[in-house]
């Protein structure tokens, strides 16, 4: 794999990756979607494609902490409806990675995130939140779950950027803050874990990347604790605004990088 080892990094590069790992922990327990900044940092320090393999185990560590924190708030009917579509998206993303270069990956994901952020803002201004997460039981709700699920699986496979897509879906489905965090925690733990064999098969995870992960994963824990402290101090409206803002910033970063 074309990547740097732990010993190839200088102090500033390691500090940048450590901050990105801390931000992963914060995003998993506070503002989902904010880890798109982590994605950009990893891609700036490491080769872009290889960075996705290094970042994946760190994301899983954050997912485990989020599940331990919000496990009582997950909405399983929503999760069961999403998983088949997400699986299809992961397969499509794997095929895409076989031929796409870094530029195609960044442009595709950035454009999707900005488009979906715009659609979400427009929908919420026009009709407001849909109120209850069981909206997925309607025909329109099922269609929306499938479309977001495929895009979420695709984006999480090719760039670990599924967080903003699923954040927008959960907001559009009317989830409140704690239900949002609990449902997304289980969702990403299951999805990211299922991606491991695909990433290893593509050569994105190997012994060198795991050694770097072992050094960086320690920084996920304080980030998660900081996020848990902060989430009780963020009201629902600000929470939604931060999620959408993080999505827009992440999309722009991918397009202009």
TrEMBL record:
The organism's place on the tree of life at top rank: Bacteria
Enumerate the UniProt keywords alphabetically. Answer: Cell membrane, Membrane, Transmembrane, Transmembrane helix, Transport
Topology within the bilayer: Multi-pass membrane protein
Instruction: Read off the Pfam families from this record.
Output: TauE
Q: Where does this chain mainly localize?
A: membrane
Q: Where in the cell is it found?
A: Cell membrane
Q: Where are the transmembrane segments?
A: 49-70, 82-99, 105-122, 148-172, 178-198, 210-231
Q: Which family does it belong to?
A: Belongs to the 4-toluene sulfonate uptake permease (TSUP) (TC 2.A.102) family.
The protein in question is named Probable membrane transporter protein
- Name the species this protein comes from: Streptomyces viridosporus T7A
């Amino acid at each position: 794999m074309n990547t740097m080892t732990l010993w190839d990094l200088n102090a500033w590069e390691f500090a940048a990756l450590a901050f990105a790992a801390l931000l992963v922990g914060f995003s998993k327990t506070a503002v989902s979607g904010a880890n798109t900044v982590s994605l950009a940092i990893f891609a700036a320090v490491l080769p872009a494609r290889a960075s996705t393999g290094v970042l994946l185990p760190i994301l899983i560590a954050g997912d485990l902490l989020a599940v331990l924190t919000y496990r009582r708030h997950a909405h399983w009917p929503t999760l069961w409806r999403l998983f088949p579509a997400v699986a299809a998206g992961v397969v499509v993303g794997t095929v895409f990675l076989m031929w796409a270069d870094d530029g195609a990956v960044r442009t595709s994901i950035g454009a999707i995130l900005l488009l979906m952020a715009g659609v979400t803002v427009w929908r919420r201004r026009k009709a407001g939140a849909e109120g209850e997460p069981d909206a997925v039981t309607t025909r329109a709700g099922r269609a929306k779950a499938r479309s977001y699920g495929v895009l979420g699986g695709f984006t999480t496979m090719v760039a670990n950027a599924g967080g903003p897509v699923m954040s927008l879906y959960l907001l559009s489905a009317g989830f409140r803050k704690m239900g949002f965090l609990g449902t997304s925690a289980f969702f990403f733990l299951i999805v990211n874990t299922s991606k491991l064999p695909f990433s290893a098969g593509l050569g994105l995870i190997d012994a060198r990347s795991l050694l770097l992960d072992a050094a960086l994963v320690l920084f996920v824990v304080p980030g998660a604790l900081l996020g848990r402290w902060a989430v009780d101090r963020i009201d629902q409206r600000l929470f939604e605004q931060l999620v959408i803002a993080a999505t827009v910033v992440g999309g722009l970063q991918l397009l202009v990088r």
